[in-house]
Structure formats: C-alpha cells, structure tokens
Design a protein that fits this description.
Number of strands: 7
Strand content: 15-25%
Number of helices: 9
Helix content: 25-40%
Order of helices and strands: HHHHHEHEHEEHEHEE
Radius of gyration: 16 Å
Shape: globular
C-alpha cells in the first residue's frame, strides 16, 4: 500500500468498529466469502452499475489531482481505477474485510490509497473537513431512516466540498424519502439529483450552501 498520506489507517479506524445499527447488520454481514468474490461479476454489466459509474465519475471529474476522497463503503473498489487516473488521494472504508481484500487486490500500482474497516454512521477518528469529497454508494438501503440521517451528518462533518450518494427515494421497502434526506442536511443542500437506472433510484450530490439559481 502507498502510505505517503498525512494520516495512517489506524489513526482513522478503531481496530474493531462498533456494531452497526440492526438494519445494517444484514448488509454488512452479507458481503463475505463467495458473495464478496462474485460481487462485481454479478453486477458490473447491469444498467444500474453502468449508470452509477458514469454519473458518479462525472460528478467528480472536475476535482483537481491531489483531492482527498473518502469512499465509504468502498466495497470491491469499483472506482479505484478512476481515482487513480484522476490523481486523487483516497481513503476507503468498509465493514467487510473480504471486500477490503478485493479492493486492495485491484489497487493500481502506486496509487495514493489507504483502506480500513469503518462504520459510515460513526467516523469518530476522522478530523472534521478532511476530505474534498465523499462517495457512499448502495448503503442507504441497509441503514434505515435514522442510520441514513446519521451517515449523512457524519459525511457532512468530515467533508468540505461535496458528498455523492445513492438512494431509492420511493416505491421500495428500503426507500429513503426526500424528507428523510433533507432532515439530515445542516448547511448543505442538494446540488444535483439524477436518475440512475430508473426514476426512483437517485444519484444525489450535496454541497455546502444553497445551489446556484
């Protein structure tokens, strides 16, 4: 691993994260062993995956080299190649050690990235406003409404520029409404809200302050 950043993984993540809220347990515990090993192959050709990749890369593409990115949960590291091409400094966190191993295996040589276990609802070890951007893909369904609010508030605390996350907002058992999302925002607002592979699945960008008129 490249370790020429100003922090070390052990500074950011406790050796053992506290248990996630009950609604997240299934999601966190699910992605181990064969499920983790087959994760990309089962998804990377799907319309949902392709839309996420295209839109999220576009939302980050104007950041300059050296920008600090938090990717949580990083999963298998699907954005690592893009981050490397852009010259970003990356911290990736995930609850699953197996997913982190897969991310580490696909890390481009010489990339500025550090990986560690972490709970998106409790990023205690990370200083405020450390990151230029944070990415949180496919996590809100596992968090419940309260966990989603907690996660978004933590991301606002540790991020100074933009937050990009995905959420079903209606017509699904795990939908997180716009009311729930808005209740989490403290000095931040929705700057971009794009449909993923269908209208109810959104890729949302938050930034501090009010969006331009």
């Amino acid at each position: 691993r490249v370790t020429n950043l100003e922090w070390k993984p052990e500074d950011l993540y406790p050796p053992q994260s506290r248990p996630l809220p009950a609604e997240t347990t299934e999601g966190g515990d699910k992605y181990h062993g064969p499920v983790a090993a087959e994760y990309d192959a089962k998804r990377e050709q799907s319309p949902k995956w392709i839309a996420e990749q295209r839109i999220i890369e576009a939302m980050l593409s104007d950041l300059p080299p050296g920008s600090r990115i938090l990717d949580c949960p990083i999963g298998t590291g699907r954005f690592l190649d893009f981050y490397h091409r852009k010259g970003f400094q990356v911290v990736g966190a995930d609850k699953s050690s197996d997913m982190l191993k897969m991310a580490e295996a696909k890390m481009p040589k010489g990339m500025m990235v550090q990986l560690g276990t972490g709970d998106i609802t409790r990023l205690d070890k990370i200083p405020s406003a450390l990151f230029d951007a944070a990415v949180a893909v496919r996590i809100t369904r596992w968090l419940g409404d309260d966990g989603t609010v907690a996660a978004l508030r933590e991301l606002q605390r540790v991020t100074r520029g933009r937050i990009i996350f995905t959420a079903r907002v209606r017509n699904h058992p795990h939908a997180r409404s716009y009311e729930t999302i808005q209740s989490a925002l403290k000095g931040w607002s929705v700057w971009e809200d794009r449909a993923g592979y269908h209208e109810d699945y959104r890729i949302i960008q938050l930034r501090p302050g009010a969006p331009p008129v």
